[in-house]
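Lab notebook, bench 4. The sequencing result for the construct came back, and we need a structural model before the next group meeting so we can plan mutations. Quick request posted to the team channel:

Model the 3D structure of this chain.
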Amino acid sequence: MVPAHPMDPKDQNAEQIAFWNGPAGERWAREQAVLDRAFASFTVRLLAEAALGPGQRALDVGCGCGTTTLAVAEAVGSAGAVVGIDVSDPMLEHARARSAGRTNVEYIRADASTFRFEVAFDVAISRFGVMFFRDPTAAFANIRSALRPGAHIVFACWRPVADNEWARVPYEVATRYVPPDPPPGPDEPGPFSFGDRARIERILAGSGFSAVSITPFDAETVVSEEGLDAAVEFAMDNGPTGRLLRDAPAAAKGRVREALDARLRPFAQRDRIAMGGATWIVSASAPALF
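Done. Here's the predicted structure in token form:
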């Protein structure tokens, strides 16, 4: 059993921990199937890059509702094991329910940037879970310390928001009616904070990883298969638009909803609405012992 790890209220990632234990985490748990469908192509590509095999011990960083954790469990089989780590109680509760009866799956609620793992892993993966650390170099150094020599990490992260149609288009619409947030600083944590390839390289090199590979991967983000109304709701709830509208007046939200209905209509193919998504697929190795 991997021990639980109580959250330190002074944790440098406290703001993100609070965010993912509030309405955002509850919504992700509630809408897990919708979000998994939206990001399915990126999940498939990530798992292909990880090249998991039977008997491996894997770590899933920012495992959320357990979708990638369960996929890894299938790949490593009964002789292997996977540990999912996340800070969000609502998502982990959902993940545990989905994983009931799986003997090779375990979840811990902890901050992956500081948690001291008691086992060594053959591989670490993450689907959109590593962009939220206040000190990413220290976080990746801690993750590297959990890997056996010669093991590797593979993760998917978003390229800049300007390259991601699914996030950029709704935000451009929303800011016509709601004042935009101040742009985040280049080192601020957030979903698009790893958009700069050079920054990823610096972080991984500084945390002791080697053989870094960063490959662009573009695919559809399926925002709805239930028609335009569902696509509008997805656009208003997720990405930078979701954060912008979180505390917006109801009247402004109503105007954004009407404008998005018109703006997203050209993307519809019957009930299916898909928009462009742009990621980096990143891999790196923990130094081997000679």
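The beta strands are 57-61, 81-86, 105-109, 121-127, 147-158, 210-224, 268-269, 272-285.
Will bring this to the meeting.
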